[in-house]
């Protein structure tokens, strides 16, 4: 039986803001444009099986890296509902304009007094928050991991990672993030660094991954070198061979798309 996640907003926003969508429908453009070659593995592929004495052969592209492929098919992308222009005011604070503002909202922040002792504080010494249009709910037993859509590679911001139990309470979804780019042109509108200061409407800003809560028990295990080497060989042959009979690849095909 499929589990369900619901993104709810008011009728007013229908056709006005872009909807959340399964992550597999929003692959990063750079990834989709990579050349695909069945003889390629991940960009650096182990050619020896002893992990303590690995050598690497460079291959053609990341397009066939199954770990990244499967991550890019996981969860739901929440796109930006507006185009944001970030600037720095003359007091050195982060300043934001909206090219369109359907939510009629403002930005709020959480200063470092709330994160006392944190290493590597944000450039602007705050985490910032916008309210999105969406309320998120899931079925009993399902929580949501909210995180940064890292492979879309907008390094101007990092969406903060957290977990909310959306089966126990609806989540009025915030965009909680830090701004990573030091803006040097202050409030000058004639010298905007579009690539780093502008977030376009529909750009991925959050990744939501629902997960079914289960109890796990961890174990640390020590084995001899023969067993350790055997396990490495199992992984290598399961994930780095591009043959139709490989069990891991058969499993992935059978699994299909989990998030629709």
Quick description:
This protein is of the alpha+beta class and 260 residues long. The chain has five helices and 15 strands. A hairpin with a 5-residue loop joins strand 6 and strand 7.
Question: How is this fold's topology laid out?
Answer:
Blueprint: E1 5-8, E2 21-22, H1 29-32, E3 44-46, E4 56-58, H2 66-72, E5 76-79, E6 84-88, E7 94-98, E8 108-111, E9 126-138, E10 142-147, E11 157-159, E12 162-164, E13 171-179, H3 194-197, E14 198-199, E15 204-212, H4 225-239, H5 247-255
Antiparallel strand pairs: 1-9, 2-5, 3-4, 5-15, 6-7, 6-14, 8-9, 9-13, 10-12, 10-15, 11-13
Features:
single chain, five-stranded antiparallel beta sheet, 15 strands, alpha+beta, 260 residues, Deoxyuridine 5'-Triphosphate Nucleotidohydrolase, Chain A
Describe this structure in words.
By secondary structure, the protein is an alpha+beta fold. It has 2 domains: 19-74 and 215-252, no CATH class; 80-212, Deoxyuridine 5'-Triphosphate Nucleotidohydrolase, Chain A (Distorted Sandwich). It has helices at residues 29-32, 66-72, 194-197, 225-239, 247-255; strands at 5-8, 21-22, 44-46, 56-58, 76-79, 84-88, 94-98, 108-111, 126-138, 142-147, 157-159, 162-164, 171-179, 198-199, 204-212. Strands 1, 8, 9, 11 and 13 form a 5-stranded antiparallel sheet that branches. The longest helix has 15 residues, at 225-239.
Outline, from the CA principal axes? globular
Structural domain tally = 2
Biggest sheet descriptor: 5 strands, antiparallel
Mean pLDDT: 87
Q: Name the CATH class of the largest domain.
A: Mainly Beta
Q: Please mark out the parts with pLDDT under 50 across 5 or more consecutive residues, or reply none.
A: none
What is the CATH architecture assignment of the largest domain?
Distorted Sandwich
